[in-house]
Design goal:
InterPro entries: AMP-bd_C, AMP-bd_C_sf, AMP-binding_CS, AMP-dep_synth/lig_dom, ANL_N_sf, FAAL/FAAC. Belongs to the ATP-dependent AMP-binding enzyme family. GO terms for molecular function: ligase activity. By secondary structure, the protein is α/β, with parallel strands linked by helices. It folds into 3 domains: 3-241, Rossmann fold (3-Layer(aba) Sandwich); 245-340 and 369-401 and 421-451, ANL, N-terminal domain (Rossmann fold); 455-579, GMP Synthetase, Chain A, domain 3 (2-Layer Sandwich), CATH 3.30.300.30. The strands form 8 sheets. The chain has a 5-stranded mixed sheet. Helix 6 packs across helix 7 (214-227).
């Protein structure tokens, strides 16, 4: 098949398996950073075809397959086998069996009406044991790495408009939303990434990002398979434990494109060890992408300075912006060209106004550009009037183009509201409302905050109402009291703050309150996999509410920052500077 006729990722992988059969497609590293497995394009394609033959024989095009895997080649094979058959993949992370994370998986199984579950032979028993305790015990659960069909795979005639997978955005227990990504969306976004990063099939890609997350799945795995390049992968757990192994892999395999959320660079600085870094060479790094959470100029400066003597240059940083609703990529810069920054007034920015400042001003804050769009219409809009705003005016970021996904699975009203917005006056286009606030200056996009209440910690999106609901469910003393969770920018990125009402009539002693807060921090951290920096207990009935009784999170945050809430007891690990 010629390049001009290729319409799906299936077409591209088949082409690459034919033309680059002996080229290494995937190299897996273990938790020690040592090579554990490598597969050529011919080998991985054969594994995919074997599984696809079985799936095609036993399931139907359009079925939903929940993918429960830990980091490994098996996930890539299972995901691509689904694509070959026209089965809609639903990638999810898999943690310890007793983790509350499994409750979220149940909600997603219900939401997506999952027809089958794929996992590995090693994890099969564990998943079956969990499944038996759910309402979905009858759902077929199969070990994909040992399945063999009786008939070879035949083309499923997958078209660009067919759904490729559902990307669940929030991990929300109450209202998970599956973004419907089509094959056309996937190929268009893959093309954008290739163009903006200046990739080709000689590019070596690698990293530690979770496979189930859009940045790891599309930005690394599928981009590499689309290009016909080589991909080097390690697990997120391995990175967190030993971030120097990530940098060592970049050196050893001469990786050109790698990166992650802002926190990963801070983590690498904190754990940097010159002895372990001895002999590494980062000069082959072509694009060090930084996205998925607020990008900090000081982090970029600190990382560049710390690793300069190992061949890293500040110009290698590649700030970018994207989301699941646009498949992944929206804006980015130019490799090896220094990204733009603007210094503005902090107080004016909080009021969604841009006033330029000198860097030495006490009220100055540096904003990092997320780059420019390519083949997407990115506009800044007044979120109330829906009128387009001029350069330098802060508004909501709206996006139109072929990478914008099809909507939320099974949620037509939310799809219309979020994916089908129109400008006033209308230009005939439907736009995605991102909920992010920002402005454009000389075609550069600057993200300034979020209109929505999402908390983003270490690249994870968390709805505050989910934290609040978990508190009610996990602690009987808080079952009747209200709470407000919100994010707060600190020197180490965004952190979770919880303000919780408690009835003074319980008469708890300080030691008991300390134990209560410790349990609460542990439960939230375990359930959402993020640390809680602050828990403030306040008297019952004192949390700001609307006239209808709803919690006012933003007002709570304002009062908390000003010290206006009547605190009963609390835990606080944030430095004073974070609250000023």
């Amino acid at each position: 098949m010629g390049l001009r006729r290729m319409k799906t990722i299936v077409d591209y992988l088949n082409y690459n398996a034919e033309h680059y059969a002996k080229k290494h497609a995937v190299i897996m590293l273990n938790d020690k950073g040592e090579e554990a497995e490598r597969l050529t394009y011919s080998e991985i394609n054969q594994k995919i075809l074997t599984l696809a033959g079985y799936l095609q024989q036993n399931f139907n095009k359009g079925d939903r397959a929940l993918l429960l895997y830990r980091t490994g080649v098996e996930f890539i094979v299972a995901f691509m086998a689904c694509e070959f058959c026209g089965i809609i993949a639903v990638p999810m992370s898999l943690y310890a069996k007793k983790s509350p994370h499994f409750h979220r998986i149940e909600h997603i199984m219900q939401d997506a009406a999952v027809n089958l579950i794929l996992t590995t032979e090693k994890l099969h028993g564990e998943v079956l044991e969990w499944l038996a305790e759910t309402p979905y015990a009858a759902t077929p659960c199969l070990p994909s790495d040992v399945l063999v069909g009786n008939r070879p795979w035949t083309s499923a005639d997958v078209q660009p408009e067919d759904l490729a997978f559902l990307q669940y955005t929030s991990g929300s227990t109450g209202n998970p939303k599956g973004v419907m990504v089509s094959h056309g969306n996937l190929i268009h976004n893959s093309l954008l990434i290739k163009h903006k990063y200046q990739h080709d099939n000689n590019t070596v890609m690698g990293g530690w990002l979770p496979f189930y997350h859009d940045m790891g799945l599309i930005g690394l795995i599928l981009q590499s398979l689309y290009l016909g390049s080589t991909l080097v992968l390690m697990s997120p757990v391995a990175f967190v434990k030993h971030p120097m192994n990530w940098l060592k892999a970049i050196s050893d395999y001469k990786i050109n494109t790698s990166g992650g959320p802002n926190f990963c660079f801070e983590h690498s600085i904190e754990k940097a060890n010159d002895q372990k870094l001895e002999g590494i060479d980062l000069s082959h790094w072509h694009a060090c992408f930084n996205g998925s959470e607020p990008i900090k100029s000081q982090t970029i400066d600190a990382f560049s300075e710390r690793f300069a003597r190992f061949g890293f240059s500040r110009n290698l940083f590649y700030p970018c912006y994207g989301m699941a609703e646009t498949t992944l990529f929206v804006t980015g810069g130019t490799p090896h060209v220094a990204h733009e920054t603007l210094t503005v007034d902090r107080e004016a920015l909080a009021a969604n106004k841009i006033i330029f400042q000198t860097p030495d001003s006490s009220s100055a804050v540096t904003l990092v550009s997320s780059g420019q769009a390519y083949d997407l219409d990115v506009v800044i809009v007044d979120p109330v009037s829906h009128q387009r705003l001029a350069d330098g005016e802060v508004g909501e970021v709206w996006i139109h183009g072929e990478s914008v996904a099809q909507g939320y699975w099974g949620k037509p009203e939310q799809t219309r509201e979020i994916f089908h917005a129109e400008l006033s006056p209308s230009n005939g286009k439907h736009y995605l409302r991102t909920g992010d606030m920002g402005f454009q200056q000389q075609n550069e996009l600057y993200i300034t905050g979020r209109q929505k209440d999402l908390v983003i910690v270490n690249g994870r999106n968390i709805y505050p109402q989910d934290i609040e609901q978990r508190i009610k469910e996990s602690e009987p003393l808080f079952a009747s009291g209200l709470s407000a969770a919100f994010g707060l920018e600190s020197e180490r990125g965004e952190r979770v703050v919880v303000v919780q009402e408690i009835d003074k009539r319980h008469g708890l002693e300080p030691e008991q309150l300390t134990q209560l807060i410790t349990r609460l921090r542990f439960e939230i951290g375990r359930y959402f996999e993020v640390p809680v920096a602050v828990i403030t207990l306040i008297a019952r009935g004192t949390l700001p509410r609307t006239t209808s009784g709803k919690v006012q999170r933003r007002r709570t945050k304002e009062m908390w920052l000003k010290g206006e809430l009547p605190s009963v007891f609390g835990f606080d690990e944030l430095p004073v500077a974070s609250k000023e």
